[in-house]
């Protein structure tokens, strides 16, 4: 999409390769720090949420293929420690494989209930990342994004608005409904109250 291409251009042209590599490696560290049992539980939920979903008839969320190709060809990306990249692929291969997808996009769950289930599972998984690792990623992200002029970020607003208008109304409503239910769950479920502290 035009928006994804512009975001990639900002990171590959405004952020130095060293800062971008550091950001990506800190992100990989965060994912690798997720305990295996938490990841296994999330993967199970993904498979459960996509029961009977077919790539032949599902609602697809388009993938920004052109932007992905450009980003993965950038110096900042190719300089990632290959050992870390390999560990990331091995750890998450089964999880990524649980999402029904085509060359053009990733399927959405068929029901709002399953979409909500997926959102909650993603939230739980994020809480499984140790706080010190999250802090390191946040610091790397802050250093990287400071390289991007605020005026360049503001120029993205028209494209963001165009993207919102171009989203299928039914899909947008499903996301909004699931998002509201997720917010309600986070406030009422004692598991999340404990994790947020």
Summarize the structure.
Helices cover 73% and strands 3% of the residues.
Strand arrangement in the largest pleated sheet: 1-2
Distance between the termini: 38 Å
Number of DSSP strands?
2
Count of helical regions = 12
Provide the structure class.
mainly alpha
Which blocks of ≥5 consecutive residues have pLDDT under 50? none
Order of helices and strands: HHHEHHHEHHHHHH
User: Sheet with the most strands?
Assistant: 2 strands, antiparallel
Shape: globular
Overall helicity = over 70%
- In round numbers, the mean pLDDT is 86
How much beta, percentage-wise?
Answer: under 5%
How does this structure look, described?
The chain has 197 residues and is mainly alpha-helical. The chain contains 12 helices and 2 strands. It has a two-stranded antiparallel sheet with strand order 1-2.
Which features does this protein show?
3% strand, 197 residues, mainly alpha, two-stranded antiparallel ribbon, single chain
């Amino acid at each position: 999409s035009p928006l994804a291409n512009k975001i990639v251009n900002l990171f590959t042209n405004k952020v130095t390769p060293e800062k971008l590599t550091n950001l990506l490696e800190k992100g990989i560290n965060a994912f690798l720090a997720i305990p295996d049992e938490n990841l296994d539980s999330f993967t199970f939920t993904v498979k459960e949420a996509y029961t009977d979903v077919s790539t032949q008839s599902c609602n697809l969320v388009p993938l920004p293929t052109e932007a992905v190709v450009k980003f993965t060809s950038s110096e900042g990306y190719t300089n990632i420690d290959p050992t870390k990249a390999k560990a990331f692929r091995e750890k998450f291969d089964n999880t990524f494989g649980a999402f029904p997808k085509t060359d053009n996009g990733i399927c959405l769950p068929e029901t709002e209930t399953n979409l909500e289930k997926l959102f909650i599972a993603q939230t739980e998984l994020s809480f499984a990342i140790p706080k010190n690792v999250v802090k390191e990623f946040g610091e790397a992200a802050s250093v990287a994004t400071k390289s991007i002029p605020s005026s360049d970020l503001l120029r993205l607003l028209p494209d963001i608005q165009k993207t919102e208008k171009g989203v299928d109304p039914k899909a947008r409503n499903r996301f909004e409904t699931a998002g509201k239910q997720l917010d309600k769950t986070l406030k009422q479920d004692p598991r999340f109250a404990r994790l947020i502290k």
